[in-house]
Design a protein that fits this description.
Elements lengths: L1 H23 L5 E8 L13 E4 L12 E6 L11 H14 L4 E4 L10 H18 L3 E3 L11 H5 L2 E2 L3 E6 L6 E6 L22 E4 L17 E4 L13 H6 L13 E5 L2 E5 L17 E8 L1
Parallel strand pairs: 1-13, 3-4, 4-5, 5-6, 8-9, 9-10, 10-12
Antiparallel strand pairs: 2-11, 3-13, 7-8, 11-12
Helix pairs in contact: 2-3
Length: 297
Amino acid sequence: MDKIYVVLIAVSALVLLYILWCFIEPFFLDQDRATLKKTHDDASPAGSITIKKLPMVQSDAENVPDFRFVFFSDTHAEWCPVSSKRICDSIRKAHETSPLDGVIFGGDMSSYKHGAAKGFKYLTAVSNCCKELGIPFYGVSGNHDIFVDNIPEQAGFVSLDDTHITLVSRTSGSKAVLAGLSDTGRKNRVWHKMPVLDGNEPIMLVVHDPDAILHFDPATRPDFMLSGHLHGGQMKFPFRIEFCVLRRHDKLPNMGAVQGVYNIGGTTVFISRGLGCGVMPFRFLSVPEVTVVEINL
């Protein structure tokens, strides 16, 4: 019996430590760097699309990039222990290292409509930081954002939803298209097609849910894509239970793409772990992140 008690006490202690860490981890912040370079075209259809994991910092990362952005996503303001001040500090630090071409928000300002006020306050602080530094602030909608109206106007960022702009590299003079797609929500979701754009400039697409790439025609897949939505799984469980049960509707995680940099069907894709916590206020082995994304055309 004594052995049984010892085992029960040990198991109970491990469970308590696990629960404690789940509440502590959301307060941490990884300030990452990802370098994206153009990959070879891949005309494989969605049903046989290829996915290859790439290193966050690729071999030619010491070259001067054509574009530099700070990318963050999924603030879920009701439970986001990472303050807007910490994000602004990351933006300032990155901009001091080398000028930024923009700051990009990947969607999901808040989890619910009643959390919109906190979400606006958070993004407005980031917007004010960008204005102070003279940096454009862009963003797209996430699946939770459909419940709140006029987010870009009230939060102070330029919406990329279903539109695009042309950017010129301050380092090389090369042109590229920065485009975005809106999110229609998880219920009765409509997957928007990539627009056919005039010209041959590389396309940098921002879309909240990375599964969108599975719905593009091969000929219209962008060169680069920035996404969030998956939270890195938010909580890592054995046997990928978090995706089999909690995120069973998300396809890319079950194909091996969860967080980081990938070549997906010829598109170089970065998937952020995001900042806040959706639905459940904890994380496990999925630390929040803000990322300097460097793009080499």
